[in-house]
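Example record

One chain of 596 residues, shown exactly as stored in the release files.
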Amino acid sequence: MSDSDPELPEEDTGPTAAELEAAGQNALFGDPLPEPALAPVAAPVAPPPAPAQAASKPYRVLARKYRPQTFSELIGQEAMVRTLANAIARDRLAHAFLMTGVRGVGKTSTARLIAKALNCVGPDGQGGPTIDPCGVCEPCTAIAEGRHIDVIEMDAASNTGVDDVREIIEQVRYAAVSARYKIYIIDEVHMLSRNAFNALLKTLEEPPPHVKFLFATTEVDKLPVTVLSRTQRFDLRRIPAPMLAEHFARVCGLEGVEADTEALSIIANAAEGSVRDGLSILDQAIAHADLDGEGKVTAARVRDMLGLADKSAQRRLLGHVLSGDAKALLAAVDEQYALGVEPLALMRALMDLVHRVTLAQVSGTAPDGPSEDERAALADFAARLGPAELHRLWQLLLKGHDEVRTGPDPLVSLQMALLRILHAAQMPDPGKLARRIEELAASGLAAAPAPAGAAPAPAPVANSSNQGPNQTWAALVDEIDASGQLRIAQMMRDRVRVIELGPERLVYEQADNFPDDPAPEIREALFKLTGKRWQIERGTGTPQPSLREAAEAAAAAEDARIRSDPLVRAAFEAFPDAELIGSEPRAAAGGSPPWN
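Predicted structure tokens for this chain:
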């Protein structure tokens, strides 16, 4: 049957063309038409519906959900916020800002906040630049959602060439479409090429009044000096661990999650000053905590998740090192390794313990620790160990850390490093050893008789030179030496025993068994020195020791004097194999000259 059949009567069973057109118009611009009733049909069993919140809005990680939307929410950067507030209040805004710092401290968030602060118009649309943007006006909401046409956010890691910068240069000449300022946010700006930086210099130095540049980078040292000099730089600080722990506690409260104070402290320390890293770890910890059905973030769960050593296990390990129990030490290391604790993390944990013990000892205050047990244990270590022992322990741990980090087998390197520290910890401290020797000397050891068979200390040797009318033999030899006749002076020191010394007269005995006679050379040397002929001959009588023999006797007497000192005798009693190391005899004592 067809509607075009003229023989059939027209039936009013369906809507007319006008009604269909009106229905379409209502569907597009007015209320939707009611759904036609459909006959029930058999349908497969559907899974239970998801929660309404999850169906309407996907989950956002904590690092994005709690990104600062106002300067008051930006933690740890009070100095920068104060500077920006004063600049806005005094209308002294720079044309380019540079935010630098480690990851996750708020560089890009600060750039977006500055963009909101400069373009905010207030709820009534009549406001100006402010350090407290309203967050409800069109520019604030559009910037927060990343869709404002006048706030261009660019990733320099993806746009590194000069052509990308050339597009910016050509666009800055045009005024902003709807905002007060056209703002370019360039993240990781150090990734721009050298040519791109050079192309940007002129525009960066003298941009149009309606343009602001906001740069963010983690490696400010890679930026050319010409760029740094054209920007107002803000160095964003690392966030302290206590401040991070407080921030994470607020986030847990907003999320309705219960968390231990120690767990938040562990997460804050693992974040290393980065809010984003800490929130990512907290997000993971919350998901990990849900496994046991309690939904509570505990320290044990966080340590297990991060592969960290248990605090009590760390303290026991340090106790084994200090007590010298090698078997218990190795067993504790194996236990922690079996639990998944990395050797390098275990070494760092021991270094952190020693550091906190040292700080507590120096400051005289209670040690820093999340629990009462840990504070008591650290206080006990601080009372037992001296400053020198702690510093020596730190140096040994630091060397062990490098060995574990670079060694082919970290576990073996950790075991050997800790065993070396264990044996070194039992060595006597130099300060205590000195005091012990003093105590031994004071207790009467110094008054003990000399050992049987010991040679008596030689008596000091008298002056080895006969006194002449104007000079002594030693002085005469020094003058020969000073005149440049070095070989003759040395021969006079070593081979001549003076019997008689007078004006132009020397009677001597030779101190060696050499067959040659030194008299002719000595006579010639003295003639060159004095201009007179000397009478030099061998003789008999009582000779004085040669200058070298006198110096050796004086050195032996000084050695005996030192060994007879009570403190030195006590040291030799404590260390029988010790040696006394002294200086060589000096020329002034009749020995070798200074140049020898």
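Notes: The radius of gyration is 45 Å.
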